[in-house]
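STRUCTURE:
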């Protein structure tokens, strides 16, 4: 997995969370029109709520020249991670991966995913997962290019009851000790 050379990925400091939320919202703004007002407002509420969750979560930021340019949340397997999914996904999940629109196509998302994969592998997991939808074709293309494969058994319908939230997972080469 090739990553951006001049980007550092690290844990977000609590004083950066509001900036990270704003960056996430800006990164997803391109979908606002397609989502419609009610679904978009609900999506924004969800973004804010995810950053405030107290359960185990890695809050990651990508920084370039002392500026936050990307964010991601990484959750360990946990019951109830997705309200509409009754099963517990048995591997870590990336959520709300976002890159500042002015910094796209520079390997920042790949760097964030690589760090998530490193952490999942370090913790002994064979897979790293995420969810997206056909509403986000650029994201789907990126994930497929990086080796993610569909895992439909963890699909569910979004709050609009028409959008399928599709599950993907990346096989990690786990070294047994």
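SEQUENCE:
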């Amino acid at each position: 997995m090739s990553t951006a050379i001049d980007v550092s990925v690290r844990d977000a400091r609590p004083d950066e969370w509001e900036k990270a939320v704003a960056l996430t919202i800006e990164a997803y703004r391109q979908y606002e029109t397609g989502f419609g007002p009610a679904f978009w407002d609900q999506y924004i509420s969800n973004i804010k709520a995810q950053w405030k969750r107290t359960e185990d979560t890695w809050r990651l930021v990508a920084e370039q020249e002392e500026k936050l340019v990307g964010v991601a949340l990484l959750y360990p397997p946990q019951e109830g991670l997705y309200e509409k999914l009754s099963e517990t996904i048995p591997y870590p999940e990336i959520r709300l991966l976002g890159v500042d629109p002015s910094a796209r196509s520079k390997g920042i998302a790949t760097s964030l995913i690589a760090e998530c994969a490193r952490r999942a592998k370090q913790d002994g997991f064979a897979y790293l997962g995420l969810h997206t939808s056909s509403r986000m074709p650029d994201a789907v293309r990126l994930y497929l290019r990086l080796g993610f494969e569909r895992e439909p058994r963890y699909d569910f319908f979004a709050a609009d009851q028409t959008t399928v939230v599709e599950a993907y997972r990346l096989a990690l080469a786990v070294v047994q000790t």
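REMARK: The mean pLDDT is 88.
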